[in-house]
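Chapter summary example.
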Amino acid sequence: MNTRRVRRPSGAMIVALAALFVALSDSGTAATFQNFLLGKTNRPTRPTGIAASLRGPVFALANTGAGVSASFNVKAGAQPFTVNSATKVQKLNADLLDGKDSTSFWSLTGNSGTNPAANFLGTTDAQPLVVQTNNQEAFRVTPTGTIGVGTATPSGKVGVVASGSTDAIVATTASGDAMDASSTAGIGVNGASSGNRGVEGVSQTDIGVEGISDTGEGMVGTLGRYGCPENFPESFGAGGCGASAGAGVLGVSTSHEGVYGSSTTGAGVFGESTGIGVYGDSTSRGIVGTLAHASCAGSYAIGGCGGDHPGVLGASRTEAVVGQLLGNACPALTAAVLGCAGNTGDGIVGVIAHPVGGGGAAAVHAINNDGGDLFIGDSEGVRKVRIDGAGTGYFDGGTQNGGADYADSMRADSASKLRPGDVLAIDPAKRNTVSLASSANSTLVAGVYSTKPAVLGVGNHQIGASLAGQVPVALVGVVPTKVSAENGPVHVGDLLTTSSTPGYAMKAKPVLVNGVAVYPTGTILGKAMQPLASGKGLIKVLVTLR
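The structure predicted for these 546 residues follows.
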């Protein structure tokens, strides 16, 4: 039996035969391909391709060494390869496809080890950074570093523009400052609204809105675009400029100050409006304005404590300043200052920080340049008190004063040497002048130097005029009087006349006229209301000259 040796084909032949088989099995395009040679550099004169109808990969690379599995050297500008399939490639590490490491990108689950100088979220050219939600712009950071919410051109460092009646900024806190804006040269917070509140502050335990400024307005609120007067000559802690139907500054509180203004140069709170300039509603202090840090104390609707300027200043065509305590509604009146208190406080309280005799300022000062009344007091809708422009007072229920007598202010000889309780007589040598009574049973008796007159008549003198050289001479009423027992012990009810001791009264004794006891007319000073057994003393006398 002859055995014929069969020669095994080479690898190149197998590849060539496989390529030829694949080419012949392709649908009408085999003649356009050139064989692909393994282990050699292919220099095709026509396209070299691999095609297969198998289920597995057409071309697979396995690299067990340290070399490169595949490399592509193409002409500049040409694509290395193309893929016409849209199927996702699994487990493809594409970190180096674009020359960048994926760890240099921002992660949606947080980042660490960042350097603000090199790692940031933003732009590197003069374009804004825009953040969108629901495909709508939420806010932007402009190339100049300003932030705009609802606007592409913010006017300040942060600009917020709200559409419709939406609140531009709402800040709420339960314990600290909801919003804190400080300025040393401009406006701390500037809120303008044409349909709602410019600035609204709500706090459970502290101040809702607090504005502090060294040179300008601490807080300015305008309503209806009704601007504050530019020529206002003073700086103020809070300026409220309201339109015809609203409040420039609205403060509501149940335990602290509704509106609190503190200033060292101008008005603590300033309100100008055709409606309500400043409105405060509180169970303790509705509105408190302090100037030069002059402290106020107590519960009241409006507390204004000023240094060299007004504590509370209001200008309006209706109510300039309105204060409500315990929410007690104010009547519909036109008034410069309107205070409405509940059952535990006062409607209006004025406090002056000056010591007694210092500064000459008034806690409440009423000025009426139209010749009208200076003061009007109503009770339950009925007028009870009125002081007209001439200074005349009208009191429906009478008057009650601290003193107990009526006295006239009279010129006195040696007035500086006279003392309360002295018995005085008309000086016959000097017109309209009194001096110490120095003779017994004198018909020149004028009255007693009043210790504390309830009413003092000053003749032609005006309020504030000097009464130097004059003394108050009690003509009617109960007056402490110097009395001597030189004419016998004084009993309650005894009539008194002048004594021989200068400045003293004594018991008067009648003379008998046809058996009738008669007291000389014009010598009686009054009637003793306390006894004096002996010597000299000061007793109460009902002065009734006759």
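To summarize the output: The first strand starts at residue 129 and ends at 133.
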